[in-house]
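Final report, results section. Input specification for complex C-07:
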Amino acid sequence: MVDVITQKKWDKVAPNFDLMAGGGGEVRWRPFKEALYANMRGKILFLALGTGLDIAAFPPGQDIVAIDISPKMLEIAKDRIAGYDGNLRAEVMDVHEMPFEPDSFDQIYTSCTFCSVPNPVEGLKALKRVLKPGGELFMFEHTGSRWYPFRYMMNIMTLLSERMGPSMNRRTTDNVRLAGFRIIEVNNIFLDVVKTIKAVKPA
Amino acid sequence: MDHRLFFVLGDFLANLAVGAIVGLICWAIVSPSWNMWIAMFAMMPVGTVVGLILFFPIGIKLGAMEVMVPLMFSGELSGMVVGMGAAMAVLTPGQAALLGAASGMAAIFFVWAANTLLRGVTREARER
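Structure output:
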């Protein structure tokens, strides 16, 4: 069953999402996202498409299944999905309830997703199930920081942000490891807060 | 740090402005009758929260984490410095704003330096 609380939270955020996330943040992150998505090949699962801001950074001609828990987010994404030069299909779906067969995808991509999945390790295990052995997980995520004063600030921010949307103090790299993936590379983009993570499902 | 001029200047000026605003707020709250330590520790969270609030309008143009973290740090540092200063001596609003702006500038330089050390590729990144 879909996590209705999380779904409602993101449905509520959807109308204003592009205002906060689509401006300076997207401009800053675009070069790093383009570099990450340049690795796309084979059958791809994209997690948490949101309003489709990331689509502009996708290389053309890919075969992508994108999911998001929020129907209102995907409604806003409709034009961006239609404008993609490739095969992009979007569905409302909870990561914990994906109906895909095991070992279905060559690659999985996430973008600022595991700050919001209520049970991140279980969510990552669900991704591992549908990823082929040896398949790759590419993540663009923001996490908590190991370092003072940043760690303390992310904790304060989380008290507020969790009510409206994401957590700011997740330990996503550790969660990827706990879910059974092998970390290949972590690239810190801003402090140790904004990063790309590359991991593989052991064969 | 982001080397695009818009973001470098934007980050710098935003942190200067937040520092100055927090400085003025501290000036309005703290008087020399306060204990210096209490003023300092009380104004740190006030500055952090002000930095966080100001992040929302500023972040629309300048970004997300790259703006939120420095602004909260600028607010905290400015609150600490100006809070302490206002408890130790009578400050004019101009002095409080200037001291706050200087704290904001120090904070963004610190974040840039920390970012230079922390960014980049690693294979063994752990978050605990």
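Residues 5-112 of chain B form one domain. Chain B has a mean pLDDT of 93. This concludes the modelling results for the funded period.
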